[in-house]
TrEMBL record:
Organism: Actinacidiphila yanglinensis
Signal peptide positions (record): none
SUPFAM superfamilies: Isochorismatase-like hydrolases
Keywords, comma-separated and alphabetical: Hydrolase
Protein name (database record): Nicotinamidase-related amidase
InterPro entries: Isochorismatase-like_dom (IPR000868), Isochorismatase-like_hydrls (IPR050272), Isochorismatase-like_sf (IPR036380)
Segments passing through the bilayer: none
Single GO MF annotation: hydrolase activity
Annotated Pfam families: Isochorismatase
Organism taxonomic ancestry: Bacteria, Bacillati, Actinomycetota, Actinomycetes, Kitasatosporales
Domain Isochorismatase-like: 4-184
Length: 193
């Protein structure tokens, strides 16, 4: 899949803890191993893996009180630069040389150099995976279609705290914007299983 990249977004220790990915009975059951398969398959097929993380300066003065989400995030001390919880979960950690993009808001493009990274590598198609479907995945997909980028969403490599919201977005909205596939279907399409 020349021109494609897999974006692994917000799979950080604090986020994984919040959504309860480790809970084998919850909606996150099997999430990290499934995401790991997608990452390993992308690498095997020569598809670049780009990690996106949320990192905010402590007490981020750019976080407006008008933004309910950002005010809550800053008050809770989430995503503070240098905090252990902002690290990418070790089960899906990047290999040396893989790009890690730091963003400042929901979209992978917000306050980051992702667009520059994509242009420098001639990437015109994004394969999205991450937590949460209704936050980073949705926001990034919106921006990607505005930039005329091709889009694939790996539905079972995305996760949300609200399973019904995840279902509605992946079944009703994302198919209007691009392809929605399972990890296994995507791996078969790129010839990596």
């Amino acid at each position: 899949m020349a021109g494609s990249a897999l974006l692994v977004m917000d799979v950080q220790r604090d986020v994984v803890d919040i959504v309860g990915v480790a809970d084998s009975a919850g909606s996150g059951a099997g999430y990290l191993p499934r995401l790991r398969r997608a990452i390993d398959g992308a690498r095997a097929a020569g598809v670049p893996v780009i990690y996106v993380v949320m990192r905010l300066p402590a007490g981020d003065p750019r976080a407006s009180a008008r933004s309910k989400v950002m005010a809550t995030v800053v008050r809770a001390g989430l995503f503070a630069e240098g905090a252990p919880g902002t690290e990418i979960h070790p089960d899906v950690a990047p290999e040396p040389g893989e790009v890690v993009v730091a963003k400042r808001r929901a979209s992978a493009f917000s306050g980051s150099d992702l667009d520059l990274v994509l242009r420098a590598r001639d990437i015109d198609h994004l394969v999205l995976a991450g937590i949460a479907t209704s936050a980073v995945v949705l926001s990034t997909a919106c921006r990607a279609i505005d930039l005329d980028l091709g889009l694939t969403v790996l539905a079972d490599a995305c996760l949300d705290t609200d399973p019904e919201l995840h279902r509605v977005v992946t079944e009703n909205l994302f198919p209007l914007w691009g392809d929605v596939l399972s990890v296994d279907a995507w791996l078969a399409a790129i010839g990596s299983r």
